[in-house]
Amino acid sequence: MQNDIKAANIAFIEDDEAHIKLAEAKFIDERIANQVTYYRTSQDFIAALNDPSNPRPDLIFIDRNLLFSELNGDELATYLRQNKEYADIEICMMSVMDISREKANEYDRLRIRFFMQKPILNENLEKVIKASIKLWHLIIVKETKPHE
To answer: What does pTM read for this prediction?
Structure first.
């Protein structure tokens, strides 16, 4: 039987090199087989998003506190939700700080279903991965070879 599930494209927008390296390691640890593309600024991500030669992401991890970007993470999420072409893309917001109830309500209004507190720990990433698999079938996990 052929597997018709397409592995989702993942965009990861983060300006801190240490957090990018940690995320890369966690994706490997969790055996994520999806294509993950990393961006350091909102403008780099938007430029790639508007380039038709790039695959459209299905899941976007956004750092709330993007430095050296034209848009911070919250502004980028709002931009995506206000653009009909990108409004349906799943978003996971990330921050080193927890969010307030007010910010959580704002994320609800923006249909942002995931928030991950950094540093990216296995259990945080695992929650997003499991929810993505269960709800949207976005994440493809590599099978491990049985021990001989």
So the answer is: 0.77
